[in-house]
Every structure is written in C-alpha cells, then in structure tokens.
Amino acid sequence: MMRHRQLLLATTCLWALSCASLLSSSTPDGAGLLRVSLNKNRLNREALTAAKVARKQDSRLLGAANGGDEIPLVDYLNTQYFGVVGIGTPPQNFTVIFDTGSSNLWVPSSKCYFSIACYLHHRYKSAKSSTYKADGETCKISYGSGSIVGFFSKDNVLVGDLVVKGQKFIETTREPSVSFILGKFDGILGLGYPEISVGKAPPIWQSMQEQKLLADSVFSFWLNRNPDAPSGGELVFGGVDPEHFKGEHTYVPVSRKGYWQFNMGDLLIDGHSTGFCAKGCAAIADSGTSLLAGPTAIVAQVNHAIGAEGILSTECKEVVSQYGEMILNLLIAQTDPQKVCSQIGLCMFDGSHSVSEGIESVVGKENLGSDVMCSACQMAVVWIENQLRENKTKELILQYANQLCERLPSPNGESTVSCNQISKMPNLAFTIANKTFTLTPEQYIVKLEQGGQTVCISGFMAFDIPPPRGPLWILGDVFMGAYHTVFDFGKDRIGFAKSA
C-alpha cells in the first residue's frame, strides 16, 4: 500500500484485521526507550478474501508522489500486527496498524458523516480534547478505485506511556472504499520517511526525535510468529531488546528514502540462484505487508520448487511451445537477454528503446512490453537462461520452462501447498549485504483457518516493477517474523538479525 505504490499495493497480500479493542501495553525501560506490545489475530479465509478486495482496488497505484497533497498509500490492509494509541487529552483510543510502508497517522473523524466505514470504527472528536489545535489543511489519499478525503489537525498522541505533543495527523471525512468497511482497524500509524508523507506531516518517530523523547534514533520490530502465543510481538522505540534476537544485526544502507528501501542480491532455492536478481534487486522492509512479494519469474520458480498449485497460463505455455527453442538458440548465440523477446517479435521494447516502426508511444517506457505474451516471453528468457547456466539439455530446459508456466501465481493472490509436505520443501534464502538470510519452509508457509481446517499457502506473492524502480521485493511480515528488524533513521540503515 505505497504513495508511490502501484508498486506495493499491486501485489502485497495484507490481511484485513479482526476487530480489536485491546489496549497496547507498554513498559518504559528508563528514559528514551519505549516498548509497545503488538497484538495479532489468526489469519483465516474470510480475512484473506477481504484483502483480495482491497488489493484489486489498489492495484494501479505507484507513480510519483512528490509534492502536492495527493499521494497513494501502501498496501496497508494486509497487516496482522496492530496496537492501540491514544489521541487527545484525555486520550481517545484507536486501533492502528504500525506500517513502515507509509508515513502518516490518520483516523476517522467525528465529522465523517457519509461513509459507512466511519460509523463502523472509532472516530476522533476534537471537541473532547483539551490539547486539540486546528490546522484545517485538506488532503486526499488516492486509491485505484477511489480516495480518502480529510483534513489535518494537531493533538497529543499517546504511544504506550510516551506523549508526543502537537502531532500533525489526518482526520478522515470520507472513506468510500470497501477496503475500509472490511478492515477492522481504525487507522494507520505510518513509520516511513517524511518524503512520502502527505502534507509534509512528520512521521511520529521524527516528532519523537525532535522532542528528544528517544534514547537512540531507531525503532525495532519483533514479530512473534507463534500462532498460539498470547503476544503478537513488540515494537520498541529508541532502541532494541537483546532478548528478541540472536547474534549481531547485519546492516544495509537505505538506498532510497520514502519507503525503507535497500539493495539486495539474489534469491536462492536450496542454494541455487533463481537468476532474475543475480545482479541485484531493490527491496523494501514493510511491516504493513503480511507476505513476501517479488518478481513473477522468481515466484513461479519458488512455487515449482515447493509444489504450489498455480493457475495454468495458456499464453505462457504457448510461448514456450512456439518460441522456446528460438529463445534458447538466441541465448546460446550470446544475444542480449533483454533483446531476445523484441527480436522474435513478442515485445515492443528491447531494454533501451521501442523497436516499433513509425509508432510513437504516448506512455512511458516502463509501460512498454506489458502485453501478456511479452511478459510470458520475458519470464521464459529468465528461466531458460538460468537453466543454461546449469548446463541442462534442451529437452530438460524446455520441459522446466513449461512446468514453471503451470506454477505461475494465481491472479487472485495465494498459491496453496500441501500442509503435509512442508517438511520436504527446500530452504529459501535472500542475500543481503553479502550475507545469506535463510527462510525454512515452516517460516515461509502461512497457515490459514478455513471451516475448522488448516489451509497452507505459499508466503510468496507475484509483484512486477520494471526498471529503474525495479525489480523490487517487498519483505513483509513473513521475513520480519524470521528476522528481528531495526529501522535506524539516525544513520539511514536497516538491520536484520535472527529472531529469538
């Protein structure tokens, strides 16, 4: 959800939350360190269906969100980790998602009269707060099928036992999206950078820093992946809890401010490269995304390796059948992989310019080559090139590509796997800062409750962003649950260590 997020919104499958009125407990560890307990609910099929609706509505977002008062938000509907904050004096409590993929704090306003979503959630009443200060600047947060309209106000925000004075936040007055009716949270507390904040409102961590409320300019997430544990985890402002991680953190610099974006390397299946990110990809650490979202070409390989049931793509199989041998021969002849699909006539863009004659495109280069056949061809090139490195025979290479076509992720989102096969699935690993971060099958397979039974789904979702912004991965709660994550805004870096 993303802001610039056609990107993040398009493929992240976050979960709509179950209704929660629990008050987050927090324990200050001396001056400048604040703990906020995170709550969570079990994932179920109903929540997943609600998330699909939200994702479809937000699927066209990305774009530039620099300046102005309109910016798309990230895939905020899908997180399962939440807490309660208080706004005003005395505090009015709101259940919020702590989202590193957005930067604003917003909650429904008592002045929201014509949206069903507002009546289903707690609403902020400025008249009942003695510390309220009017701002009045209007704003709009855009989505693929609608928008949220509201205005800015200022008031004290209680996070645990910490009072942030005069925080600028949004009171929403219109929430027409079905997403907000289905979502059981009241609002969002964004923890991204100011660069993607609507109306230049400082994210709450920046306000904490400016008011000298923190011992250190960091916050850290520990997400408890044990479904039977009473606590969902802990968010610590101003430091880290050594009991929440093992060993030392590996830090990587933020490569692009806005989201917590950094450069990563390859994704490995049982130690073998998947090829697509062998020369590096961008990644975003996003607490507001439940799963892992990445390039379709890699997700299809993952699904094939773990036996996930995808939807048969006739276009993909047709490309492999009719053009697979031609693609193979061009790659053997050392043809630039980016130009293979344009040379065989399936793409209009060869990686550097349009190859169509006499036709001037009115869309950006990033949108060229998005035709289904072109996309299938580009994926086939990645798969075939990767198998060539393994010195496989032509028959085995084309057979492998055809099998991957059958494992393409479902357009509706999740790919299911057999729960009794989890122990036989391979380890998967991301390379970050030249170190390997492994995910075991128990960590990347997500279990859902459906009709009293357990359904297992792949923790990987397809998500394609072309250069120069992409290829891009969204490392959501599946990854952050396995690896304790430090967001160091003082040094503009992100740290990962094994969760304890």
UniProtKB/TrEMBL annotation:
<dbReference type="GO" id="GO:0006508">
    <property type="term" value="P:proteolysis"/>
</dbReference>
<dbReference type="Pfam" id="PF03489">
    <property type="entry name" value="SapB_2"/>
</dbReference>
<feature type="disulfide bond">
    <location>
        <begin position="419"/>
        <end position="456"/>
    </location>
</feature>
<feature type="signal peptide">
    <location>
        <begin position="1"/>
        <end position="25"/>
    </location>
</feature>
<dbReference type="InterPro" id="IPR008138">
    <property type="entry name" value="SapB_2"/>
</dbReference>
<keyword id="KW-0926">Vacuole</keyword>
<comment type="function">
    <text>Involved in the breakdown of propeptides of storage proteins in protein-storage vacuoles.</text>
</comment>
<comment type="similarity">
    <text>Belongs to the peptidase A1 family.</text>
</comment>
<keyword id="KW-0865">Zymogen</keyword>
<keyword id="KW-0378">Hydrolase</keyword>
<keyword id="KW-0645">Protease</keyword>
<dbReference type="InterPro" id="IPR033121">
    <property type="entry name" value="PEPTIDASE_A1"/>
</dbReference>
<dbReference type="InterPro" id="IPR001969">
    <property type="entry name" value="Aspartic_peptidase_AS"/>
</dbReference>
<dbReference type="InterPro" id="IPR033869">
    <property type="entry name" value="Phytepsin"/>
</dbReference>
<dbReference type="Pfam" id="PF05184">
    <property type="entry name" value="SapB_1"/>
</dbReference>
<feature type="disulfide bond">
    <location>
        <begin position="112"/>
        <end position="118"/>
    </location>
</feature>
<dbReference type="InterPro" id="IPR021109">
    <property type="entry name" value="Peptidase_aspartic_dom_sf"/>
</dbReference>
<dbReference type="InterPro" id="IPR001461">
    <property type="entry name" value="Aspartic_peptidase_A1"/>
</dbReference>
<keyword id="KW-0732">Signal</keyword>
<dbReference type="GO" id="GO:0004190">
    <property type="term" value="F:aspartic-type endopeptidase activity"/>
</dbReference>
<dbReference type="Pfam" id="PF00026">
    <property type="entry name" value="Asp"/>
</dbReference>
<keyword id="KW-1015">Disulfide bond</keyword>
<keyword id="KW-0064">Aspartyl protease</keyword>
<dbReference type="InterPro" id="IPR008139">
    <property type="entry name" value="SaposinB_dom"/>
</dbReference>
<dbReference type="InterPro" id="IPR007856">
    <property type="entry name" value="SapB_1"/>
</dbReference>
<feature type="domain" description="Peptidase A1">
    <location>
        <begin position="81"/>
        <end position="497"/>
    </location>
</feature>
<dbReference type="InterPro" id="IPR011001">
    <property type="entry name" value="Saposin-like"/>
</dbReference>
<feature type="domain" description="Saposin B-type">
    <location>
        <begin position="370"/>
        <end position="411"/>
    </location>
</feature>
<feature type="domain" description="Saposin B-type">
    <location>
        <begin position="311"/>
        <end position="351"/>
    </location>
</feature>
<dbReference type="GO" id="GO:0005773">
    <property type="term" value="C:vacuole"/>
</dbReference>
<protein>
    <recommendedName>
        <fullName>Aspartic proteinase</fullName>
    </recommendedName>
</protein>
<keyword id="KW-0325">Glycoprotein</keyword>
